Amino acid sequence: MNWEQWLLPAILLSSFIPGIIIFALPEERHRLRTVLNLCGSILKIVLILVMDTGIYFGYNFEIRLSLIPGVELLLNGDPLSALFATLSSVLWLLTTVYAIGYLEGSPNRSHFFGYFSLCVTVTIGIALAGNLITFLLFYELLTLTTYPLIIHRGTEKSLRAGRNYLIYAFSGGAVFLFAVVALQTIIGPTDFTGAGFSPSFIDTHATALALIFILLIIGVGVKAALVPLHGWLPQAMVAPAPVSALLHAVAVVKAGAFGIIRIVLDVYGPQNLLLLGVLPLLAAVASITILYGSIRALQQDDLKRRLAFSTISQVSYIALGISLVDQPLAVIGGLVHLVHQGLMKITLFFCAGNLAETLGIHRISEMDGVARRMPFTMAAFSVGALGMIGIPPTVGFVSKWYLGLGGLAAGNWWVVLILAVSSLLNACYFLPILIRAWFGKQQGPWPDELYSGRFETRFMLLIPPLVTAFIVIAAGAVANAQISPLAWVRFIVRKYGL
Amino acid sequence: MNPFQLASPTWMISPIILPLIAGLLCFLLNRRTFAIALAAAVANLLAVCFLTYQLLLFGPMRCHMGGWQPPLGITLRSDGPAVLMLLMTAVTGLAITVYARGYFSHRILNLRQATQHQEQQRYFWPLWMLLLAGLNGLFLSNDIFNLYVTLEIIAIAAASLAALSGKPASQLASFRYLLVSLLGSLTYLLGVVFLYRSCGILDLDILQHHVANGPGIRAALALMSIGLLLKTALVPLHFWLPPTHANALAPVSVILSGLVVKGSFYLLFRLWFEIFTQLITPSALNFMGTLGAVAILWGAVQAMRQHRLKLMVAYSTVSQLGYLFIAFPLSRIDESIQVWSIVIFMALGHACAKSALFMVAGAVFLHLGHDRIKDLNGVRASLPIPVFAYGIAGVSLMGLPPSAGFIGKWLLLTSSLTSSQWWWALVIITGSLLAMIYVFRVMSRFFVIPEDYSVTTSAPLSPLLEWPALIMALISLFLGLAASWPMKILATGNTALTQVFPGGLP
After folding, report:
1. What total of structural domains would you count in chain A?
2. Looking at the domain assignment, is residue B490 inside a domain?
3. What per-residue confidence (pLDDT) applies to A284?
4. How would you write B217-286 as a 3-class SS string?
5. For the whole model, what pTM was predicted?
6. How far apart are CA A235 and CA B294, in angstroms?
7. Which of A65, A141, A159 sits opposite B444 (nearest CB)?
8. Is the minimum CB–CB distance between A70 and chain B shorter than 8 Å?
């Protein structure tokens, strides 16, 4: 037993143990709960940074637990899991700070933060999963731990949203389970090795493997909100703002997208998929989702619903990039968007939450002139929105640039066309918000002004979006530096030998 | 041979004798009944742990009672499956004993009819101990007539327990249960008579080698199977189960749903897959599988439609029992090897999860005074531990990882796909989704925050009512992570299993 092995369980436990303690804490132990939350998330970031450094210098992190023959739990730290784990843990810290500010004085907080910690534990588990069974384990647990958060308000509306979420997520999970078992009966138990299975299986089981691929993608596509499996996401908007941030940027949707990446790169392997010829299908679904999400976003007046449809559209960039797996540049674009979309979308949701909590603004039509009342919040929002459109030097530009280059390199002009149309649509649904907020004239009093104090809103609500907005610009500006999401993604792509 | 030697098979009697003595003491002394029962449950658990240890050290054992060799004497046998079922019974039994104490104390303290509850408690303990002895005897017996005796003990003890509640609905249900149980036992007895007429042997080991295909033996097998199916409540013979389980006292529901149905199933499975293997035709296996599939779907749909929590949990039992039978047709390719592990994992997982669910249902009933699903709003705030236990047990019923139910379902799915019988896989997956619906239909009620929310005034529940449920639920959830231990016990002395998993067991 050595430290490399115990690092991975320690990473999981660093949020699991605080979570369990928080459950047991009485409601009024506010200070202790905050300390536990913050210590847990900081410790987690430190441990994950240790893992990242170790991975960069070639250490091998792995721990196995055999349940029954053929069923083995495997935690494994590779560059791809490091990408997702780092993203989730950093955003989790910010979301925790935000949630502490957001939920000040509301009931059932120990319950909320308990599930919150479990939820991030499970997300990191998805990142570290080293085979499909472990992935499945954490994928199903993610549904269970996010459900209480979605219905946290306990109203009939949130219950309906929760029920729909469960039906979508568990149906996806069931399809996924079936596909995993079917795959294992053909190729046997396999770990995520970065090469996929032996091509000889394609000679014998081509149709079955292609069908299983589709089933696997359906299974993770539910969480990644691929059209037509996206129905739960806009409804889940009834959840509190930190939960929306969690769903859209840190955990759920990301887990689905990450699953697609794992299936394409590790389970099947690029070569096998090119032989099977199923990737155009994924590309088509991703493209449809990109356009459909953007068009639906245009029609929404509710700010959070607009952001939700925008997520549906943006997450499919990841799927689109990964479906062009023979083009390293496109893969880089897709992978790096996993991080970039998270940063931008969490900024937007933090800001939307601030508007709702401070002034009671839920609709875009109520936003006229709001930037004069809340300049910092709207500045952060603008950075996120411009990033979504893809304006340099934000990170959104970097993602789209690589996706476009990858498309062109393969002579797939339609990729560029989709990107262009989507960026245009993004501009159509984000720019009016910015224009209203910055240049519009305030129409009467704010719907429900809840806060008046020294800052424009509570301090703990203001810091997280400013930090993420700063990262959105900084990571885009120094994208070519030694340490940046893009540099790490290049490292991943080299490792996969693309 | 020194009977107290470590390797002596005489130890095998203790799980039968201990509860029997405790039951007698409870009945005769009528004082300190809980202390006696708790001591017996703990001693039983220790004895079973010792048997497990013995099994791992020395392999399967036989105990010839009174030194008489078969075919004259009666034998007890401890092997992998038997020891696992004993462990399941002992752990669940201990939890039930603690829970029942909390249940009766709460009722005696808080309700007006204290004398009636004292009276119930007085009869509960001896009957429960008798039932425990009967179950342990069933798992250990290696003699087909002796097995009938244990079935009869279980039937009478269980029916009397079910009648304890005293409500008219429960009287009717338990009377029906008694008749059904007796009918089942008698059908089984008739089968034994046929068997003895054609073979002249009662010992299972000898029988295994002397079974020849003939009309007499076939009739015997059919009769015994029907009797046992009736007791196991496989659809369409399940009609008696939901009213009985739902109307009994909460600890009794736990006993009936968690343990009693497993007893007759275990016997049926042993007969089919160890003794009469040559007589079993593929169509018979498929028939059982089809009934199992119908049970899964029908039970789940009924569970979704119930208005009372306890009825919902009872129908869920009907559904979950189906999974045990769906393993039958999948035994064909694996020659009954993997099928043991499927059945054991499903049975263990279900015993723990279902005990937890009925314990929670009982706690909710005591807390609210009713168990109407639509009026369960806001229970989470007042009973956080039972609600948590409910969620975890629900996860296990749905077969999500890492529960024991998941391991069982994984094995079921793998066998159905490797044997190209994918339709069973579809039933299994659909069953899990339906389970999700009925589990979360109730769960979401717990989470509603009612409009006129105020702190409830009813007395707080004793920890004895809350913690056994949570512990059972946690066992069912984490049994999957420790799955290599049951596998190891199951494989001890079973050469066939070690062949299937070459390269040693985990």
Report:
1. 1
2. yes
3. 94
4. HHHHHHHHHHHHHHHHCCCCCCCCHHHHHHHCCHHHHHHHHHHHHHHHHHHHHHHHHHHCHHHCCHHHHH
5. 0.93
6. 35
7. A159
8. yes
Non-local (6+) Cβ contacts of B58 within 8 A are B7
Q: What is the pLDDT of residue B267?
A: 94
Q: How far apart are CA B340 and CA B83, in angstroms?
A: 13
Taking the CA of residue A332 and the nearest CA in chain B, the distance in Å comes to 33
Q: What ipTM was predicted for this assembly?
A: 0.90
The number of domains in chain B is 1
User: Is A371 contained in some domain?
Assistant: yes
Does residue A187 belong to the interface with chain B, where contact is any CB pair within 8 Å? no
B413: nearest CA partner in chain A? A181
Contacts of B447 in chain A (CB under 8 A): 148, 151, 154, 159
Residue B390 maps to a domain? yes
Residue B92 domain-assigned (yes or no): no
Using CA atoms of B282, B283, B288, B291 in order, give the dihedral in degrees to the nearest 10.
140
Mean pLDDT for all residues in chain B? 88
**Per-run averaged pLDDT (10 residues), chain A, 498 residues:** 82 92 84 90 93 89 86 90 93 92 82 90 94 94 92 86 92 94 89 82 89 95 91 88 85 93 91 90 94 92 91 93 89 92 93 89 88 90 93 89 89 88 93 91 80 76 92 88 87 84
Residue A79 included in any domain: no
pLDDT digits (tens, 9 = 90+) for A226-281: 988 999 998 888 888 888 888 888 889 999 999 999 999 999 988 889 899 899 99
Alpha carbons within 13 A on the beta-carbon side of A134 = 24
Q: Which pLDDT score is estimated for B494?
A: 60
Number of A to B CB contacts under 8 A, please give it: 88
Q: Calculate the dihedral angle through the C-alpha atoms of A376, A379, A383, A389, rounding to the nearest 10 degrees.
A: 140
Domain that holds residue A476: 333-498
Residues of A in contact with B407 (CB under 8 A): 67-68, 71
Return the H-helix or E-strand segment holding A76: strand A71-77
| Partner residue opposite A166 with nearest CB, options B384, B436, B481 | B436
- Residue from B46, B37, B45, B1 nearest B19 by CA: B37
pLDDT, tens digit, 9 for 90 and up, residues B63-120: 888 777 777 778 888 888 899 999 999 999 999 999 999 999 988 887 677 888 888 8
Tally of CB atoms within 10 A around B505: 17
Domain membership of residue B398 as a residue range: 281-506
Of A148, A151, A178, the CB nearest to B425: A178
- How many CB atoms are located within 10 Å of the residue B30 CB? 11
Which of B406, B407, B437 to probe the A interface (max A CBs under 10 A)?
B406
State the pLDDT confidence band at B311, using cuts at 50, 70 and 90.
Answer: very high
A199 within 8 A of A271, measured Cβ to Cβ: yes
Residue B495 lies in a domain: yes
Q: Is the pLDDT of residue B506 over 50?
A: no
To the nearest whole Å, the CA of B436 is away from the closest chain A CA by: 8
pLDDT at position B453 = 55
Phi first, then psi: give them for residue B302, nearest 5 degrees.
-65, -40
Question: Which tens digit of pLDDT belongs to each residue from B127-154?
Answer: 999 999 999 999 999 889 999 999 999 9
Q: Evaluate whether residue A468 is within a structural domain.
A: yes
Give the span between the Cα atoms of A314 and A291, in whole angstroms. Answer: 10
pLDDT of residue B504: 37
Determine whether the interchain pair B413/A65 forms a contact, defined as Cβ–Cβ distance below 8 Å: no
For every residue of A93-160, DSSP letters joined together read: HHHHHHHHHHTTT-S-HHHHHHHHHHHHHHHHHHHHB-BHHHHHHHHHHHHHHHHHHHTTT--HHHHH
Q: Which of B381, B401, B437 sits opposite A137 (nearest CB)?
A: B401
List pLDDT tens digits, range B201-235.
888 888 888 887 888 889 999 999 999 999 999 98
Beta carbons of B162 and B248 less than 8 angstroms apart: yes
